[in-house]
UniProtKB/TrEMBL annotation:
Pfam family for this entry, one: EamA
The species this protein was found in: Rhodothermus profundi
Cross-referenced InterPro entries: EamA_dom (IPR000620), EmrE-like (IPR037185)
Chain segments annotated as coiled-coil in the UniProt record: none
Source superkingdom: Bacteria
GO cellular component terms, A-Z: membrane
Keywords attached to this entry: Membrane, Transmembrane, Transmembrane helix
UniProt entry tagged with the keyword Membrane: yes
Transmembrane region(s): 23-40, 52-73, 79-97, 109-130, 136-155, 167-189, 195-213, 225-244, 250-267
Predominant cellular place of this UniProt entry's protein: membrane
Protein's name in the database: Threonine/homoserine efflux transporter RhtA
Subcellular location: Membrane
Membrane topology: Multi-pass membrane protein
Length: 271
């Protein structure tokens, strides 16, 4: 579902600023989340409001970075860079949740970082003749990965006391409030097709994916649960080929393989 969300964001990003997409998506998912809370009769307040708000802030920062990256990078490259989050999740889980970390995880981290270099192909390493990715886009995608890792670890902690739907609710709540001052000054009125893509595509797919992810993280160790999301990259390559004629460079494919192997090692070590 996250790969579908990325596809719809990339389509909408041709006409709309990324923060406007964040705002519309957040309003839509806030509405969906509220309906789910009412339907299941779960309280939106929760027991640890401060931690719930922090999860919302970190999620908003990750979302903003991801949507900005999707407007500047190919779909598959954006998703593979964002999916380095298992590396950061493992480190944060070890620091904050006292989950053990060993040699295999460290090996996976190094492999993943090597994969990032091959995907990004920075000019200072590969020369100015290399067709590297936009540095701002790469930085945003990695920022999304780091903030995602923080969000995942916070979800792992919050699930001890909070209902998954309550955790999900605070994400669009904070994102709606946070995106308003950035989206309104440069807002563009969406066309009917843009409304359909953002509301029906981005909003709905994001809500379904967020609920599934939150439930999954409540039942698995952090590194393993996030590593399973790597399947989204496979679909990202497919959508990029079908809709945008984006064929990953050979070095990008090699980098994707290293990142996949690295995240697999992290997941394997935590089973």
């Amino acid at each position: 579902m996250f790969s579908l969300m990325g596809l719809f964001v990339k389509v909408a990003g041709r006409h709309l600023p990324s923060q406007e997409i964040v705002l519309i998506r957040s309003v839509v998912t806030l509405f969906y989340s509220y309906l789910l809370l009412r339907w299941t009769r779960v309280s939106w307040r929760g027991q640890r409001t401060g931690l719930l708000l922090l999860r919302g802030v970190v999620g908003f920062l990750s979302l903003s970075c991801l949507y900005f990256a999707l407007t500047r990078l190919p779909l598959a490259d954006t998703l593979v860079l964002q999916h380095t989050s298992p590396v950061f999740t493992t480190l944060l889980a070890a620091l904050l949740l006292q989950e053990p970390i060993g040699r295999r995880e460290l090996t996976g981290i190094l492999l993943s970082l090597g994969g990032v270099v091959l995907v990004a192909r920075p000019g200072f390493l590969f020369g100015s003749h290399a067709a590297g990715l936009d540095p701002l886009g790469v930085g945003a995608a990695l920022g999304a990965a780091i903030f995602s890792a923080g969000a995942y670890v916070l979800v792992r902690e919050l699930r001890r006391t909070e209902h998954p739907l309550t955790i999900v609710f605070y994400f669009p709540l904070v994102s709606t409030l946070g995106s308003l001052p950035f989206a309104l000054p440069s807002a563009v009125w969406p066309s009917p097709l843009d409304w359909l893509v953002v509301v029906g595509g981005v909003g709905l797919s994001a809500q379904i994916a967020q609920v599934w992810m939150t439930r999954g993280l409540a039942e698995e160790q952090a590194g393993r649960a996030v590593a399973m999301n790597y399947l989204q990259v496979v679909f990202g390559v497919l959508w990029g080929l079908l809709f945008f004629r984006e064929m990953p460079a050979p070095l990008s494919l090699l980098g994707m393989g290293l990142i996949f192997l690295g995240t697999w090692l992290v997941a394997r070590a935590r089973t």
